[in-house]
């Protein structure tokens, strides 16, 4: 099915709410071979006080989301995904930027994530944003026993970013 994509639509970032879960599951299922369930997202939003989830909307339509756990001064990305029809337009980069900015604003100084060793697209995005490989978790993914690459980035302090732009 063809989808109409607004070239200059309004892009908005906001925190995820429980009502977003059906839209998030659509993105989740088209993005991951081991998609999280409705219960998993509900649990993250209601019980996990370390969790922060963000929705990216284009013209009021959720087209991506990202999440992290903030523990001490380290942010752990749990997932990031953009709807298939909207990929390759720098929107994933905008979403990751926003997540990193939010983490820095919350006082986080470093960010980490795991990514499948075969996921070169995501690795390219992370490297572009300053993440560097820091080892492997062997057989981390249960569907095919694939290894995870661990990556880390230092976050720019929130104030510095704003000054850099002025
Ligand atoms: C990873 C993902 C979020 C990237 O979002 P996106 O909007 O398609 O990416 P962007 O257009 O912002 O591209 C940002 C960078 O990603 C990399 N990238 C994006 N598409 C790529 C492609 N088809 N081939 C190689 N690299 C690619 C590039 O480094 C790109 O920077 P560049 O355009 O300057 O070269 C998206 O592909 C996605 O949702 N994938 C499925 C879920 C997933 O794998 N999540 C990560 C789990 S760890």
What this model shows, in words?
This is Ribosomal protein S18-alanine N-acetyltransferase. Keywords: Acyltransferase, Cytoplasm, Ribonucleoprotein, Ribosomal protein, Transferase. The protein has a single domain, classed as Aminopeptidase, CATH 3.40.630.30. It is of the alpha+beta class and 166 residues long. It has five helices and seven strands; from the N terminus they run βααβββαβαββα. It has helices at 21-31, 38-46, 91-105, 120-128, 158-165, and strands at residues 11-15, 51-58, 61-71, 74-82, 110-116, 132-141, 146-154. A seven-stranded mixed sheet has the order 1-2-3-4-5-7-6, with helices on both faces. The structure holds coenzyme A. Coenzyme A binds next to β4, α3 and α4. Coenzyme A (COA) binds at residues 31, 80-82, 87-93, 115, 119, 121-122, 124-125, 128.
List the helices and strands and how they pair.
Elements: E1 11-15, H1 21-31, H2 38-46, E2 51-58, E3 61-71, E4 74-82, H3 91-105, E5 110-116, H4 120-128, E6 132-141, E7 146-154, H5 158-165
Parallel strand pairs: 4-5
Antiparallel strand pairs: 1-2, 2-3, 3-4, 5-7, 6-7
Bound molecules: coenzyme A.
The site of coenzyme A has 18 residues, from strand 4, helix 3 and helix 4.
Family: Belongs to the acetyltransferase family. RimI subfamily.
Keywords: Acyltransferase, Cytoplasm, Ribonucleoprotein, Ribosomal protein, Transferase
Protein name: Ribosomal protein S18-alanine N-acetyltransferase
- What is the first-to-last residue Cα distance? 43 Å
State the share of residues found in helices, binned by percent.
25-40%
Which small compounds were modeled alongside the protein? coenzyme A
Q: Please tell me the CATH architecture by its name.
A: 3-Layer(aba) Sandwich
Shape: globular
Q: How many individual β-strands?
A: 7
CATH superfamily: Gcn5-related N-acetyltransferase (GNAT)
Unreliable stretches (pLDDT < 50, length at least 5) are 1-6
InterPro entries: AcTrfase_RimI/Ard1, Acyl_CoA_acyltransferase, GNAT_dom, YpeA/RimI_acetyltransf
EC number: 2.3.1.266
Keywords: Acyltransferase, Cytoplasm, Ribonucleoprotein, Ribosomal protein, Transferase
Organism: Paenibacillus lacisoli
């Amino acid at each position: 099915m063809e989808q109409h994509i607004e070239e200059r639509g309004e892009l908005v970032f906001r925190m995820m709410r429980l009502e977003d879960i059906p839209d998030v599951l659509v993105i989740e299922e088209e993005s991951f071979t081991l998609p999280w369930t409705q219960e998993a997202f509900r649990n993250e939003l209601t019980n996990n006080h370390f969790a922060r989830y963000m929705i990216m909307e284009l013209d009021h339509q959720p087209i991506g989301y990202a999440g992290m756990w903030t523990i001490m001064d380290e942010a752990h990305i749990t997932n990031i995904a953009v709807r298939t029809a909207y990929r390759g337009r720098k929107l994933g980069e905008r979403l990751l930027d926003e997540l990193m900015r939010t983490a820095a604003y919350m006082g986080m100084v470093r960010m980490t994530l795991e990514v499948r060793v075969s996921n070169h697209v995501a690795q390219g995005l992370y490297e572009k944003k300053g993440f560097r490989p820091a080892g492997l978790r062997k057989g981390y993914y249960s569907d095919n026993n694939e290894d995870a690459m661990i990556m880390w980035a230092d976050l720019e302090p929130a104030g510095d970013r704003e000054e850099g732009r002025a």
